Each structure stands twice: as C-alpha cells, then as structure tokens.
Amino acid sequence: xxxxxxxxxxxxxxxxxxxxxxxxxxxxxxxxxxxxxxxxxxxxxxxxxxxxxxxxxxxxxxxxxxxxxxxxxxxxxxxxxxxxxxxxxxxxxxxxxxxxxxxxxxxxxxxxxxxxxxxxxxxxxxxxxxxxxxxxxxxxxxxxxxxxxxxxxxxxxxxxxxxxxx
Length: 166
Description:
There is one protein chain. 42% of the residues lie in helices and 4% in strands. It is mainly alpha-helical. It has a two-stranded antiparallel sheet with strand order 1-2. The termini are far apart.
C-alpha cells in the first residue's frame, strides 16, 4: 500500500522546472578564415539550423573556438592518414603517432562545446529544441497580431470593455 498523499494534478503543481529558451534572430556571421571546406560547410550548416537562433553575439568566440578545434581535429586526422598510425620514435623504435594525443584532447574540448551549443541530440533536448521547433519569437507573435491570425485563447489578448454595462 503506497504511503503519503496522492500526487497533484500537473496543472496544479507549483514547480515544473521547464527550461525557458530565449530565441533571437540568427546572426549567421561569416566562417572564420582558414578553415577547411568541410569545416566551413559545417559552420554554414550550424547557422542554418534552428538551434543557432538561440546563439547571441556574446557566444561567438566560444562557437568559433569549437569550429577551429573541429578544423584542427580534421587536419590532424588527415596528417595521420598520410604519415601513418605508427611513426619512428627518437631512437628508431615504432611509436604511435603523437598526433593521436592532440586528436584526443581536441575531441574532449569539442564535445564540451557541442554540448553547450546544441550540436548533438541530447544537448538540443536540454535547450528545449525538439524536432526543429523553437518557441515562437516576439516578432512571430507581433506579426500574428498585425495579421489577425493570433490564437483566440490568448489570455493577454486586448479586450474592448467600453461596450460593457457597468
């Protein structure tokens, strides 16, 4: 037999801990100079996504760092592919290519930044972005009000009370 009171109806709960996402117009700055074409394409893809609408100008240095690290990771991977996984060491012995350490370190930093910027499914869910849908922006709401297409159930809708009998 369960102990304690029955849980409250979800509408009556006081604390719901739902994340709030402030949406702004997407910046879409140009890609940093010197990136590989693949990395630059990733930059453009990111800025074309819905999640980029939540990025502000203050986030740009960290986002740029994420793409520079991705570029560095890809360059190191290409160098390993051309020089081999095993290279001669200082005494002529075979050693694992030291670029693997850099790939590993850059990969950890990249994962942390991707989590911050919604570049993987779990972080997008944490940012309350699901299936490509974001909360409506103020511009969207204003446009609906101007066009008369706003939802009639809006509790903030302006009501003309001058015709009522007092």
